[in-house]
């Protein structure tokens, strides 16, 4: 007999109305497992996207040698010049990041949607589009406070093999060395370099990837008069992937440039003083479309990532006898 506590729901409620410790822990570890599973498939596209975004900086020596052209050309260039495994550079930082952050993001959204849901004319609890987007923005902002150092470490590890090919001094081999290097060049504050564009990016990413999945799934169930099933989850995850790409790509480009730039002994960036200056120089020197540099690999990463993540997450929920998201 299954003695696990069940989540209380009101009749017809779309969301949990009593938040329990069991639900929190279950969602935390399920989101971690689903996130790692998704990145195992699509992480090389993240490395490819980062290489394309860094390319084009006038004062960046990484941009002057062996210029990449397009998604396929970039991926093949990395494999040819550095080896296939370099497409997974910084993956260890991603696993650590998911363990601490994936649960924060999803659990905070799950809690906020419960608080933000309203009762409609039929007496059912539902979440409006605007309330859902606000919940997504807030949950993303909360998670960024802890994730920024690991995002910075991941990005620098992704670029490390390229630096060595150009004869530049190494910055890091693993997470510990990368953290020590960043700390030695600018102190604790430098671990939050690029925080402003990153918090904007992750907030928009969460609004698109989590809130749009949740809301679009509910709307499609109404439109198709269907129960929550694999088709609904598939369509919802594809919508979420495109929405998060379109919303967060400009902030992602600025974040990548802010985090990759060299810093002085005080931890200040030597190329860009702040995110606004980075954005202005990007548009002035490379054009408006530069805000969507690397968009194709970014979208090709986000679409499959959310597809694998949400399908894995929902499957793990079913295996544990829990309700779908």
From TrEMBL:
Major location, coarse class? mitochondrion
Keywords assigned by UniProt, alphabetized: Membrane, Mitochondrion, Mitochondrion inner membrane, Repeat, Transmembrane, Transmembrane helix, Transport
Q: Where in the cell is it found?
A: Mitochondrion inner membrane
Topology in membrane: Multi-pass membrane protein
From the UniProt record, give one GO term of the biological process aspect.
transmembrane transport
* Record-linked Pfam families: Mito_carr (PF00153)
Gene3D superfamilies listed in its UniProt record: Mitochondrial carrier domain
Listed GO CC annotations? mitochondrial inner membrane
Q: Where are the Solcar repeats?
A: 22-115, 127-219, 228-319
PANTHER family membership: MITOCHONDRIAL DICARBOXYLATE CARRIER-RELATED
What is the designated name of this protein? Mitochondrial uncoupling protein 4C-like
Organism whose genome encodes this protein = Drosophila lebanonensis
